[in-house]
Amino acid sequence: MDTPEGSMVHGPKAMLQQLPSVDRLIRDPANAALLRAHGATFVTQAARALLQHTREALCAGEVPPPATDEAALSAALAARCQARLAPRLKTVLNLTGTVIHTNLGRAVLAPEVMLHVQATMTGSNNLEFDLASGRRGDRDSVVEDLLCEITGAQAATVVNNNAAAVLLTLAALAQGREAIVSRGEQVEIGGAFRMPDVMASAGAKMVEVGTTNRTHLTDYARAIGPETALLMKVHTSNYALQGFTASVSEAELAPLAHAHGLILATDLGSGSLVNMVDYGLPPEPTPQAMLAAGCDVVTFSGDKLLGGPQAGLIVGTREAITRIRQFPMKRALRVSKLPLAALEATLRLYLQPERLRRDLPTLRWLTRESADIRAMAEALCADFQEALAPHYTATVVALQSQIGSGSLPIDRLPSAGLALKPQGKQGQGRALAALAQALRALPQPVIGRVEDDRLLLDLRCLDDPAALRAQLPAVRAALLAQERAR
Length: 486
Ligand SMILES: *Cc1c(COP(=O)(O)O)cnc(C)c1O
Prior knowledge:
The chain is of the alpha/beta class. 44% of the residues lie in helices and 17% in strands. Strands 2-10-9-8-7-3-6 form a seven-stranded mixed beta sheet, sandwiched between helices. The protein has a four-stranded antiparallel beta sheet with strand order 11-12-15-14. Strands 1-13 form a two-stranded parallel sheet.
């Protein structure tokens, strides 16, 4: 603490007078490198903000008083410049146990995919230019052949996301007319996407059939009338109906739809392009199976099980896709060149299925053996113990991962990880929140999940344990700092 005499000599007033001007601060030789790196505009703005902040703190009598000598101010200026330029979007370690986590950016792109993005985005490209004829081309052609080859579709198009794919499909094929959907498939997917609202936005009149738990073929047949344009199936990806239930499959609906000259569309959502069962995973309908069952249009996401960028993929018959592509709303929902490049490179991996388990991060993580995950947890546990002692303990635990993003809601994958538990009975909630916060504040934030008074780190999606281990000293420092602040 300052002595009374000390605070008279170095008191806020004297400190205020000692503050350099903006000009003097940026001319300080200590800041020459900063100026060279960022230019005068940026550094001057930061210096002005720093001095303003320091002045306000001194006037408010802040204790301890902010640094006012030029060496400390120069250091603060460099830190402020660095902080202002730090990206908001950064990579985090997803140890939540949910592999495709919507809040954490869903599917992680393969390194090879990013090389293609880098190579095609740092120059002009042939996005809408046909190199063979020299004429204007269509951006869909970047991926259409690939999608058709992989799914067996006659034609394909791509939009911004699957919500857009469903909206556009309904608008293009059923606007001003009726679309029939089962009451068991009136789903809401992540707040803003509710099937009845999407139908309304598309200008289609929704005709509901069946009941919440049971819908039969005759329900659809009875609802078909002169205004009907389309039968809509929705994959109930984020909830499961169990018990006394019945729904009508696409294969059963297709003959009914086609006998009446109607379109059969199905919204798959996650839409894996491989048979998940071949990888020891729970079954999930594929676009290829839906097309084989007779669907005219199938929509699915690019960044769920497919493991690519955000995109909405629409595959189907040439006639239906042409109508969708020519509908004016398509222009507003079209995909940009950046995700399109990522999608192309991701789809190319599917031409070489043997590579997928190794090279597609989503599939690699989903198929990881729990014994391997446990071995990683065991190798890390002692280091965690040491970093967190004495206020927390770390133990290796068996966990259940989720696929996530609404796919396969009831299925769990056996996994393993670390359980971090506060010592002592008192203030456990606060101690857990403090630990979770320290992990989130790391240079590469670590995101776990809180369950049963423990912070759980599921290591299924951890590729590089060394990167996690290297951050442990920073965790320890943060916990000590928190303790001192208390
Ligand atoms: C995820 C999902 C959507 C929305 O897809 P986005 O790509 O997030 O827009 C729509 N329908 C179903 C069935 C889904 O699972």
